Amino acid sequence: MLNKIYISPKQISIFCLAMLASVAAMAIVAPAVGSLGYDLYDIFVLQGIQGAPGFLGGVIGIAYSATMMNSGNWKLPALGVLGSSALIRADDITTSLGMLI
User: Which terminus, N or C, of the chain has the lesser number of Cβ atoms within 10 Å?
Assistant: First the structure.
């Protein structure tokens, strides 16, 4: 006997919304020098995430996750290592993805 696959109307509408949302994705470039947007971009992105605070936060996150590996539950610390590694390499990740939003 063949098994039938049932797709609910809710699943179809979620799929259609996801397809429509992907069409509206746009790439972002750095704001022009001297504007308010550039000042915020400089403080949060260039000096924060790509600077020493972002690197230090990533290293602390990796070290904390490594110490939590002994607790027996390895899934949460593994996600912490992945997230902290992504924080350290955030500039390369956003460059390779084209900064899609």
Answer: N
The domain segmentation of the chain, as residue ranges, is 27-97
How are the residues of the chain apportioned to helix, strand and coil, as percentages rounded to the nearest 5?
70, 0, 30
CB 65 within 8 A of CB 77: yes
Query: Given phi > 0 = left and psi -120 to 50 = alpha, else beta, which region is 33?
Result: beta
Closest CA to 68 of 79, 58, 57: 79
pLDDT digits (tens, 9 = 90+) for 5-64: 888 899 999 998 888 776 655 666 777 888 888 888 888 888 988 889 999 999 999 999
Alpha-carbon span 52 to 42, nearest angstrom: 13
Structure tokens at 4: 């039938």
